[in-house]
Amino acid sequence: MNKIIVLTFFLCLTISAFSQPNEITYFHRSNGNIIDPNGNCFIINATNVSCWLYQENYILGGAQNAHKITAENLNEILGTNAYGNFSKQMMEHFITEEDIRLMKKMGFNSVRVGFSAESFDNDSIKNVLFSTLDNLLPTFKENNVAIILSMIHAAKPQNTLWVSNYTKGATVLWDSEEAKLKTASIWSEIAQHYKDEQIILGYDLINEPNITRKREKELIDLYQKITTSIRKYDTNHMIIYEGNSYATKLDVLSKYDSLLDSNACYQFHFYSWFGNKIEKQLPKHLGRAETTQRPIFCGEFGINRLSEIKQQVDLMNNAREMDGWAMYTWKSIELSTTKEEKKRPPYYGRWIFIPFEDLHMSIVQFHMDNEMRDVMDWLTNVKGSKKPSAETTVNVIEKILNAVEVKNCKIDKIQIEALGLKFN
Question: What does DSSP assign to residue 79?
Fold first, then answer.
């Protein structure tokens, strides 16, 4: 048995022995460890879910741009409320009880669930968001799959990439006090709603924040503001702080650690598309967490070659200080490897520098036929695409809602094995 595993096991037993029954009933931090409601050390083996409570175009085969572009185009074809209705339909169809049971069967013990602050601008969408998650809470509990709630889109873009719904010239979060207050207010509402739910592992305040180093203390200031709004109603749940520079640099967290909540952990993200080496980055992250005695986990990695995914998982699993990982992503379009795909925009059969033949994007994959992809191309402003009719668009939406149901999907068993998990 690996010495690291043995040491971790006995450390967890020691912590558990000093935990009094019923004294603490939520996931929480104990020095550098995450402790589950039963008093045991918890190592996160999670997957991320996109396109459920918020939308990402590329998951459906569209271009990598802000979903507001898709909203404007869909509303142009079907009317003012079309995109809002589509978002609500995706909330109800993209993840179901079958997905959660499948996650458990594969060995995932948690899931990072993203959502958008934009949903709180519309009471109808917000209500569906809450009711959708609430209705599935019993299934999460039955299968012991914990939930990490993550704000993927803040009230204004927290970085200048499409992942935060940014478009050129938009005001960013850091330049809007109103947006900061709104972001904190949304978390306050979430805290009130879920303050007593044991299956919630923690609140991941802002996904991939990016602010200049000269202003990075403002990130801590905002974290404090949000944390205060949460703690007004919820003193139970753990807070999760992501580092600056798209969650790749944790030095700002360790520098101002004394200003952060005591029941909190660090999160970093890692993608190696542009030559980053996890063997160089991981020791830096772990050093920051060890200095401050904070739990630490990788909130995103993946969409890569199988060899890269396996290497990254192995290094993280063998690092004594690591408290787990969340691979990206659970469900997406099935990638085509045909000759025709290599001629088709927006990706031409490649992700960054990786040909689709070598790419593992998700665990669960749904099929998008040419009609579905043609509509997604136009909705996401792919060059050369043709505007579909209203009838075609309605038909495609129905086909998407059917395609994403897990019973109609394929499973990437090879990637499951690369993650060190098993699926029979």
Answer: -
Q: Which two tokens stand for residue 134?
A: 């609430």
What is the number of other CB atoms lying within 10 angstroms of the CB of residue 177? 8
* Full strand arrangement of the beta sheet holding 364-366: 331-333, 364-366, 410-411
Distance separating the N- and C-terminal Cα atoms of the chain: 24
The string of pLDDT tens digits covering residues 75-134 is 999 999 999 999 999 999 999 999 999 999 999 999 999 999 999 999 999 999 999 999
For residue 96, give the nearest of 139, 151, 131, 60 by alpha carbon. 139
Other Cβ atoms less than 10 A from the Cβ of 25: the count is: 14
DSSP state of 420: T
Provide the angle, in degrees to the nearest 10, between the axes of the packed helices 390-403 and 82-93: 20
Which secondary structure element, helix H or strand E, spans residue 309, and what is its range? helix 306-317
Model confidence pLDDT, tens digit, residues 297-339: 999 999 999 999 999 999 999 999 999 999 999 999 999 999 9
Cα gap 231→388, rounded to integer Å = 48
**Closest to 300 in 3D by CA, of 260, 248, 352, 253:** 248
| Distance from the Cα of residue 320 to its chain's centroid | 24
Q: Mapping DSSP to helix (H, G, I), strand (E, B) and coil, where does residue 255 land? A: helix
Give the span between the Cα atoms of 316 and 319, in whole angstroms. 5
